[in-house]
Structure formats: C-alpha cells, structure tokens
Design a protein that fits this description.
This protein has 20 helices and seven strands. It is α+β, with helices and mostly antiparallel strands. The protein has three domains: 7-122, no CATH class; 171-326, Alpha Horseshoe (Serine Threonine Protein Phosphatase 5, Tetratricopeptide repeat), CATH 1.25.40; 327-464.
C-alpha cells in the first residue's frame, strides 16, 4: 500500500520524485515558459555544473543557494502564484535569472533531491529532548553565526528583544556592504531581522514586533539612501514586508500608547520614502487624533529634507489621507486649501465636506475651485464632477456653479471615451442632466466623439 503524504512519488517531466500541493505543478514546461530561453540555457549549464549547492523543499516554496560569480552563493526562493512560478534571487537581476532557472529545473527534473523540510520537522518532533539539545549544540558549533539568530528567535519571557543589539547588527551589515563591498549584506540582515519580527507576532508579542519591524524598515531605508545597489529590489521588498508586519503588530496591540511612541519615527520614515514602499500604511496604522499634529510637523520636516522647498505641500498630500481616515474634516479642509491649493485643494476640501454631510459648505467650497481645463488636473476634475453630481442628487443642484462642473466634465470626457468606459460616460451625462446641462452636454459629447474618430482615422493614415 502506498504511504500517504510526503512519501508519495509522482511523475515529473524529467524524472520521478515527490511533489506536494501547488509545487507539484512546477513542471519543466512551466519553468521554461517562466524563465525564458536565455536564462534556461544558462541555468541548464549551472545545474549540470553543480552550481546548485543547497536545495530545500519548504512545502509551499523552494529555497536554495546557487554559486554564481561572487564568492558567496546567491540565495534563491521560488513560490507559485496563480499556478505560475514567482522567483526571487539575491543576484542583481533579482528574479527570472540563471540561478533561479537552475534551482527550478532541478525541482522539475528531480524533486526527490531536495531536502524535505516538512519531513525533517516531523523527525525532530519525534526526538527526545536530549537528542535535540545535542543536535543543536553540533549545529551551533559548526556555524557560530547561528547562535545570535537562534537566540533572537527564542527570546521570550521577561527578557525583551535587544533592540540596541539589532541596531548594531543592521548597521554592521550596512558597513560591510558600503565599506567592504559585501554585496547584498544589508538586505540579508534585514530579512533575518524580519524573521524575528514575524516570530514575535506569532508569539503574541505585537508591541515588540512593531519595534523590530520598524527598525528593519529604517535600516533598509538607510541602505537605499546610502546608494546601496538594490537593483534586485530586495531592500525595497524588505521595507514592504516590514510595513505589513508593522501594521499587523499595531492592530494586534491593545495599548494606544505604543502608537504615540512610534509616530515621530514612522513619520520620518514615510518622509524619506520616495518609492511608495508601504510606509504610508504604517503611518495610517499609528495615526490618532491626539498625535495628528505631531505627525504633520514631523512629516513636513522629513519631506523638506528630501525635497527642499516642497516639504509642506508633499506632506499635505499624505496628511489629507490621514485626516480623512481619522474623520477630521476641518483638518482636511485646512491642509487642502492652505497647502495644496490649485484646483486640487478646493476639490479635495469639497469632497471631504460632502462626505461629512456638510453639503452647503461643500457647494460654497466647490465655487472657489478654478475652472479646470487641463488634463493634468484629471483627479481634481473627477472630484468636482463627483461632488456636483451628489449635490444635484440631494436636491442642491441649484447651488452648484454649473460652468465649473461643465469644464471639469469636458476634461474627463476624452479619457472616458478613449478607454471605452460606457458606464462612466453615462454617469457623466446623468450628472449634467441633473444640473440642467443635458442639452449642452449632449451636443458637446457628439462633437467630442466626432473629433476623436477623426483623430484616430488620421493616425491610422499616418501609420500606413
């Protein structure tokens, strides 16, 4: 009788071996489709040349080390998303590279050659305490670098996480990379620290997890701002992962004080983030009404350091979202009108007032919005039409400056028609009808359709 679970064998395109869950679908055909001809060719050479020095089956993903041209082997992970391989590598290419191809080809052809982590854990679970301690002793003696990592993952009870020690490790990794040319060291240490943060969340210690994940994000941002090579995106990914862990930790923490403690640091981190790496979500997680003023000041300072002369305006865009999240309508109006200005400021303020049920104020605010005639103000045009339509729907259409609404609609219409968004086109027409502009709008829409049709014919003729 065939045994169940991990011992069962399967047919692969290049051999026989075990396969479990989604990884069983990682066939040689899929590998070749995912990596492309060039990477597959080089990966084939690496596989046959013995460059895959470690290969581990983690159950839902693969992990391995592949020796490249650098002294240290590259670390490769491969998961599946919607049935397709998702590779990551610490090499400059970062993903669909020859190192990933070599590991994936080995799995497709000989999955039985991978160390089975699930079976290993099962075996460890059957060992006596003395045997486990003896095994750990041999491991730690053969690789002393594991001592600090294991110790950090096992810290518990009354003893808190050594944050100063973590700072030293992260700073040392950055120094090794910038000062001694150890490529990828900063990213590797950041991911190791994230393992600790994840473990703290699982152990029910969310406040410590929040501190550790924030520390990791700050260190990775320091590395990026020090012009460390992140062409493979590993540091950016670490910040994104740290942001997710941080948000989970804050949500799990019942103590409001932890938010206040971290607000200045998170605000400074967000101000340094020029790559949309998820730090705004961290800011939202710690935002409270009482700390909003501090958050705004710290954001302005951080943005000003990054973009001198533009700090107030750039910080204001972030704070609008924060104040909306907190339901602080008057603060949204203040920031939008005083700092953002232009067409966007009054439009944002009018939308916030409308959402708060302050319809008459929204109508008055809308009347201060400049006529929008430029596609660069597309988002503002959408808000103007949205607020005007809502005012008309609630019986306050006569309070709307219809010329402003008409101008905003004219900016939107070409985009809507070009993208074939019929529902949006119908919504625009309905809004204009409520505002008493049905006839003028219908005439304008017909003219715009003719213009776009002629423009497309002209482009087609030029192409021939």
């Amino acid at each position: 009788m065939a045994s169940k679970g991990r011992g069962r064998t399967r047919k692969g395109e290049g051999g026989r071996g075990r396969g479990r869950g989604s990884l069983a679908g990682l066939t040689e055909r899929k590998v070749k489709e995912a990596f492309g001809e060039r990477s597959i060719g080089k990966g084939e050479e690496y596989l046959l040349g013995g460059h895959v020095v470690e290969a581990v089956d983690l159950g839902d993903s693969l992990w391995g080390r592949v020796q490249g041209r650098e002294y240290d082997p590259y670390v490769v992970t491969i998961g599946l998303k919607d049935g397709e391989p998702v590779p990551r590598c610490t090499c400059p290419m970062g993903g669909a590279c020859k190192h990933g191809a070599a590991l994936a080809l080995r799995w497709a052809r000989d999955p039985g050659s991978f160390t089975d982590s699930v079976a290993l854990l099962r075996s460890l679970g059957r060992m006596q305490k003395g045997g486990l301690v003896s095994l750990m002793e041999r491991m730690l003696r053969s690789d002393p670098s594991l001592v600090e990592r294991v110790n950090g993952m096992l810290q518990g009870g009354r003893r808190g996480v050594d944050l100063k020690g973590l700072v030293r490790r992260l700073e040392s990794a950055l120094e090794l990379e910038t000062g001694r040319g150890r490529r990828g060291e900063a990213a590797r240490e950041a991911w190791r620290t994230l393992e600790l943060a994840d473990g703290l969340v699982e152990d029910g210690r969310p406040e410590e997890a929040a501190h550790v994940s924030l520390l990791t994000a700050e260190a990775a941002m320091d590395a990026i701002c020090s012009w460390v090579d992140d062409s493979n995106g590993s540091l950016g990914d670490a910040i994104g992962e740290a942001a997710e862990t941080f948000v989970r930790s804050i949500e799990a923490s019942g103590r409001a004080g932890v938010r206040s403690e971290l607000v200045p640091r998170v605000a400074r981190l967000c101000g340094r983030d020029g790559y949309d790496l998820g730090t705004e979500e961290m800011l939202t997680a710690v935002a409270t009404e009482g700390d909003a003023g501090t958050m705004e000041r710290e954001l302005v300072r951080a943005f000003e350091e990054r973009s001198p002369g533009r700090g107030v305006q750039e910080a204001s865009w972030v704070m609008v979202d924060i104040y909306e999240h907190l339901g602080m309508t008057d603060s949204v109006v203040r920031v939008a009108t005083e700092a953002i200005g232009g067409a966007h400021g009054p439009a944002i303020a009018a939308r916030a007032l409308m959402a708060a049920g302050r319809r008459e104020e929204a109508a008055r605010m809308l009347a201060t919005c400049p006529l929008i005639v430029d596609e660069g103000d597309l988002e503002a045009a959408e808000m103007v039409v949205e607020v005007a339509g809502e005012l008309a729907r609630t019986g306050l259409g006569d309070t709307v400056d219809v010329e402003r609404a008409l101008a905003a609609g004219r900016v939107l219409l070409p985009i809507v028609l070009l993208h074939g968004r019929k529902e949006d086109a119908d919504q625009l027409a309905s809004t204009m009808e409520r505002l008493g502009l049905g006839g003028r709008w219908a005439e304008h829409e017909r003219a715009e359709r003719r213009r776009l049709k002629g423009s497309m014919r002209s482009s087609s003729s030029d192409g021939r």
